[in-house]
Amino acid sequence: MTPVIECQQLNVRFRTDGGAVTAVSDLDFNLNAGECLGVVGESGSGKSQTFLAMFGLLAHNGTATGSIRYRGTELLNAPRSTLDGLRGNRLAMIFQDALSGLTPTMRIGDQMSEVLMRHQGLSRRNARARVIEALEVVRIADPEQRFSAYPFEMSGGMRQRVMIAMATLCRPEVLIADEPTTALDVTVQAQVLRLLNGLKNHTGTSLVLITHDLGVVAGLCDRVLIMYAGRAVELGPVRDIFRRPAHPYTQALLRSMPSLIIDPGKDLPVIPGQPPDLENLPAGCPFASRCLHTQDDCTTERPRLRAVGPDHSRACHLPA
Amino acid sequence: MTALLTVEHLSVHYSLPAGGLFRRRPLTLKAVDDVSFELRAGETLGVVGETGCGKSSLGKGVLQLVKPAAGRVLWEGQDLCALPAEAIKRCRKDLQIIFQDPLSSLNPRMTIGEIVAEPLEVHYPALARDDRRRRVDAMLERVGLRPEMRNRYPNEFSGGQCQRISIARAMISEPKVIVCDEPVSSLDVSIQAQICNLLRDLQRDTGIALLFISHDLSIVRYMSHRVLVMYLGRVMETGGREEFFGAPRHPYSQALISAVPVPDPDRPPAERSLVLDGELPSPLDPPSGCVFRTRCPLAVPVCITQMPPLSEAAPGHGVACHRWQET
Question: Number of helices (H) and strands (E), helices first, in chain A?
Fold first, then answer.
């Protein structure tokens, strides 16, 4: 399979008053054409910063090194002109908070039309027709009327669907969805997930779904990247991740998650302790202090991602 | 089992004063409308629903943190809604609350030792200082914090640790009921299970009753013995955990349960999900008749005109739907 996105040795660091914070370290992964890659991790795992770096959207005190290429074009620290031609056009992103992702003082139809006028040179009138069509696809009732609504006049679920419609206007090859349903209620979450699933199946868009919810991943993704403290700890096909998780963190995460299929009579096994402090990362495996199977080299040597099966790898010193 | 706390026909209203261009008349928002339930000793009643369904207002109304517009909350033979403020304050020793955002519910200028000791100072003023200190240390240890941490401030703790401090503060006066308002929603997955298990352990040890408010059905199923489902301020369904999750009768409950993503890649979402269309109507202008009818796949004309009563589908299992027998 041809990768659309190739990420190699990505490092993201932030300068802060308290010293340097490493948000992402030595991350390697590919996104293949037409697949949905789930990126799973808790807060501070670096899952969002990875893709903000790819879009050139890091905060001013952040620096990224390494390489992220889109079909051979380097995106990391690329000139503004390169990024502007790709962002919103070939590469699109949906954010968790749809209210801050939309311009509050512009009618949603106008901000959506702008994307088409800019990237595809459409006239205002043609853009309007395409926007209304896109709003229909995401099941916004009365798209003609909603065209002239402001973001604050819509509910959270509607705004998230507008964001999806806007991100997909130019039929992007890659769509990054950063926690697209976290702020939504379950019944609205189901609507948005159904929409993303349709998009993946019908348009061939490659999708990255950043989430902390393994339930969402199971329903939508083909492959899963599990991140912990800025590093990839496991990468593999979705079925392997759920049926044969290879990294102790993935195993513990799956066991400790309340879901509708666990036995509520039994206590959930928990992951003890807290995630590590990103300012003082331990020398060895970042999960070592919470891991149930720690051996000597876990605290001294950082484990690299190594294959444990076809297309399935983990970063762990334990014998497989 | 006898009821510890009985809530009868409780309503919580917020009034929005007239003003500005868009609100010529004052409006009343009925956040909780005619809700009744019992909470028994040692049990957890899970209250579930989506944003704006009134679940948090219900918790606050029960504890008199907002004054209910109507109804009664019976506690040890008295109606809390009719008690003067002084008397309610005395009841607070037994009725405690934990909030969603652990950091903002802790005073940033107090050490965690002071925060946990405060309920003792209020409710047991005669307690000697040393005894108070011993009880605080024991409680910190009980919730999984080291007693040496007592001199630190809330901002030095992570979200999960702050929630442990909130639990210690709620538990120290040895209450009989704790209202838990989304206690794990702002926490990471690996921390959620720690806090859920801590609450379950404390309940096993002390027999405390929990009113567990959450939008997360997986967590409610793990925590609760019985469940109450709310939609736009009204009760849609109530029943035991097994009956409710095994065979929900209300179309809203059915949609809610089927919308929860299940962590199993061999169960594709399209096959099992009953996706509701549309949005939650404005609670300022709820639909007539059954409040759920605008999104209900089973709605018929009677749903527009008549509010369905809570019918007893089975002993202890109530459903507010005109067509529950057909579901």
Answer: 11, 12
**Chain B hits for A244, Cβ within 8 Å:** none
pLDDT tens track for A261-306: 899 999 999 898 888 888 888 889 999 999 999 999 999 999 999 9
Q: What's the whole-number average pLDDT of chain B?
A: 92
Neighbours of A143 (CB within 10 A): 18
User: Cα dist. B143→A249, B136, B159, B160, B274 in Å?
Assistant: 24, 11, 14, 11, 40
CA dihedral A149, A91, A88, A224 (to 10 degrees): 30
Contact across the interface for A257 and B222, Cβ inside 8 Å = no
Q: E-strand spans in B1-76? A: 3-16, 27-40, 44-48, 70-75
List, in order of start, the domains of chain A with CATH numbers. Answer: 3-101+173-315 (3.40.50.300)
The residue range of the domain holding B290 is 3-94+175-326
Amino acid at B262: V
Give CA–CA dist A40/A27, Å, rounded: 14
Please say if the pLDDT value at position B279 is more than 80: no
Residues of A in contact with B204 (CB under 8 A): none
Report the pLDDT value the prediction gives residue B21, as an integer from 0 to 100: 67
Q: Provide the CATH number for the domain around residue B286.
A: 3.40.50.300
Instruction: Using alpha carbons, list the distances in angstroms from residue A115 to A21, A169, A171, A172.
Output: 35, 8, 11, 12
Q: What is the pLDDT of residue A6?
A: 97
Is B126 within the bounds of a domain? no
Domain membership flag for residue B247? yes
The count of structural domains within chain B is 1
In a domain, B8, yes or no: yes
Contact A28, A82 (CB under 8 A): no
In a domain, B290, yes or no: yes
Separation between Cα atoms, residue B131 and residue A222, nearest integer Å? 58
A194 contacts on B by Cβ (under 8 Å)? 269-270, 273, 275
Burial state string for A245-275 with b = 16 or more CB within 10 A and e = fewer than 16: bbbbbbbbbeebbbbbebebeeebebbeebb
**Residue ranges of B 232-261 with Cβ closer than 8 A to chain A:** 241, 245, 255-261
Q: A84, exposed or middle or buried, with CB in 10 Å at 0-12, 13-18, 19+?
A: middle
| Predicted-complex ipTM score | 0.84
Residue A292 in contact with partner chain B when CB distance is under 8 A:
no
Residue A161 in tokens: 């669907």
What would the two tokens of residue A196 be? 């993303």
